[in-house]
Amino acid sequence: EAEVAQSPRYKITEKSQAVAFWCDPISGHATLYWYRQILGQGPELLVQFQDESVVDDSQLPKDRFSAERLKGVDSTLKIQPAELGDSAMYLCASSLTWEGDTDTQYFGPGTRLTVL
Amino acid sequence: GIQVEQSPPDLILQEGANSTLRCNFSDSVNNLQWFHQNPWGQLINLFYIPSGTKQNGRLSATTVATERYSLLYISSSQTTDSGVYFCAVVYSSASKIIFGSGTRLSIRP
């Protein structure tokens, strides 16, 4: 069964350092999502791509976060510089389509980031 | 403001019991999904249910869009059902995905 791949699974870094997360969606899925999940809370959407274009990045802290999906397939989320409050689980999901509605989302295993 | 409220926040049951989880939303929605997050953090889609009723084995879900709520039913609970159950909606007015804060379910053997 096709899955969303993410790496690394765990990342420990010091504040002010740069970190990057990678996501490979299910083949053929045009829509890709990055979420941040703080312990005890539901996931919060950071950025949504339709192919290589950003559909929504209203919750992305653009002074330190960036995301790209250059060829409309895999995606990278970067934080520079990392802050203590960035410690969280970063989840990637993909879905077949986005046509004003959301299609069924499939999630990767996540990257757990700890900032010291 | 736009909200997704889930109840109860925590639920502890014995194996074999039935449970009902509720999701209330504050405006008309295009879509609604239920997810299960296992103790290792993996989120699994359970239902894509903007309206109506669906069933999958011991799980079923009903969304009454006109009354702005959805229910997730789990029958004959098993210890593997433990974890956090999330409701996520896309509001018609915003086309933005919003997750509730979840219901933490613990099934005791």
Give the overall shape of chain B. globular
Quaternary structure of the protein: heterodimer
Rg of chain B: 13 Å
> Runs of chain A with pLDDT <50, length 5+?
none
Sheet with the most strands, sense and barrel status of chain A: 7 strands, mixed
Helix residue percentage of chain B: under 10%
What's the shape of chain A? globular
Overall SS class of chain A:
mainly beta
Structure summary, number of beta strands of chain A: 11
Structural class of chain B: mainly beta
Detailed description of the structure:
The complex is a heterodimer of chains A (116) and B (109). Helices cover 0% and strands 47% of the residues of chain A. Chain A has no helices and eleven strands. Chain A has strands spanning 5-7, 10-13, 19-24, 31-37, 44-50, 53-56, 65-68, 75-79, 88-95, 106-107, 111-115. In chain A, the strands form two sheets. In chain A, strands 2, 4, 5, 6, 9, 10 and 11 form a seven-stranded mixed sheet that branches. Chain A has a four-stranded antiparallel sheet with strand order 1-3-8-7, with no helix packed on it. In chain A, strand 7 (65-68) and strand 8 (75-79) form a beta hairpin. By secondary structure, chain B is mainly β. Chain B is 0% helix and 61% strand. Chain B contains no helices and eleven strands. Chain B has strands at residues 4-7, 10-14, 19-25, 29-37, 43-48, 52-56, 59-64, 69-74, 83-91, 97-99, 103-108. Classes of the chains: A mainly beta (116), B mainly beta (109). The interface between A and B is medium-sized, with 23 and 24 residues.
Task: Give the gist of this structure.
The complex is a heterodimer of chains A (116) and B (109). With 116 residues, chain A is mainly beta. Chain A has strands at 5-7, 10-13, 19-24, 31-37, 44-50, 53-56, 65-68, 75-79, 88-95, 106-107, 111-115.
